[in-house]
Every structure is written in structure tokens, then in C-alpha cells.
């Protein structure tokens, strides 16, 4: 059921076309706002930046672990070196006279030197790993900082584009409000109800075709519209939009 018959002066009906055109502009602007390339670009870049930040933390953690490991081994080297120095001092002082104790002390000094050499080899290996880890930290940090700057630039472009769209939306909605104020309330109410379903609630009947759904009306439908009074609001049988008659309607 279409509800009660609505009547309106032909000029008022034609104003619906202006309203419909403004609604199409608003619809396109809202679509642009939702699908702005910078929105997707910002989300993608933000995700990349988050992943990169995680990689930086992991690299810094590895570099820190290696630094602590190196410090511990260097401390062990100092302990071994100090112990070897004390043993060497005892040996050089002549305090040890027993051949057995002397041999034991010499063996311990030799063992400590081997231990020191082994630890120093470990330090060299750790230093090589630290160098690679520090280089990775620097590389990832530079990438993160560069991507962060890129994200700020994307945000600036996004905000500028959104501001421009919002400006156009505000202007278009203001114009729409003025046009809507010139349309009789019952006709406007019907249009708004249809707009909720079809984005725009009215379309021109042009050369026998509804410009809303692009369907060509049948002879019977066109005859019924010809017979309708000029102030009678007619509807498209296919899409149910209000059909606005003009000299181009082909009636």
C-alpha cells in the first residue's frame, strides 16, 4: 500500500528533483568519506609501524642481553686474571718450596691461562654478535622513524581531505535544508520516507523512462500518468519513487 494520495503543485514536485540531486551529492560525499584512500593507507601503515616497533623492541632486547652477557664474561676474565696473577706472585716469591705444591701451582696457572683464553674467545664471539645486533637495532630504528614520519604525513593528508569533504557536506546540507523548506510538508514527508529506502525519493520521467531505476514505462503506465491531474503525485511502478513530470517526459 502506498498510503493516502499526495497532491502538490507541479512546481513543488519539480523542486524534488533539486532535492534529489543534492541528496545524490551528499550520498557521493559520504561514500568518498568512508572510502577515502588515506583511511586505508593510514590503517595499513599503522599496522606496519606496530609490527616494526615490536621488531625494534625484540632487537633492542637481544642487544641488551648480549651486552649483559659480555659484561659477565669480562667479569669472569678479570676474576681468572686476578687469580692467575696471585698464583704467579706466589710462584715468583719462592714461597712454595715443595716440588709437589710447585707442580700443582704451575698446573693451576696454566689452567687459568687456558680458561682466560677461552673466555676471551667467547668475548670476541659475543662482540661480533653484538655488532650485528646493534646494526639491526639501528636499521630497524631508522625504518621505524621513517615510517612514523610517513604516517604523520598520511594523517595530515587524510585530515585535510576529510575537512574538505566535511566542508562540502555542510554546504550541501545547508542548500538541501533551504530547498526542503520550499516543499509542502506532506510531499516532503513522502519523499523522505522513500529516500530512506532508495537514497533519493524522486526521479525525473524522461522520454518515458524513470531516471531512478532506468526502466521504460509501459504504454498503459504512461497513459495513466497522462490522465493524472498535474497536481497528483505519481509513482514509478518499478522502483516506487516519485515520478516528476517535465516537458521532457514524453507524455
UniProtKB/TrEMBL annotation:
What protein does this entry describe? Answer: Uncharacterized protein
Q: Which organism is it from?
A: Thermopolyspora flexuosa
Gene3D superfamilies per record: 1.10.287.1490
Renumbered to this chain, region (Disordered) spans: 77-99
Instruction: Kindly give the InterPro entries that the UniProt entry links to this protein.
Output: CT398_CC_hairpin, Oxidative_Scav/Glycosyltrans, Zf-RING_7
Compositionally biased, Basic and acidic residues: which spans? 77-90
Print the keywords alphabetically: Coiled coil
Q: Where is the CT398-like coiled coil hairpin domain?
A: 19-198
Domain C4-type zinc ribbon, which positions? 209-243
**Short name of one Pfam family:** CT398_CC
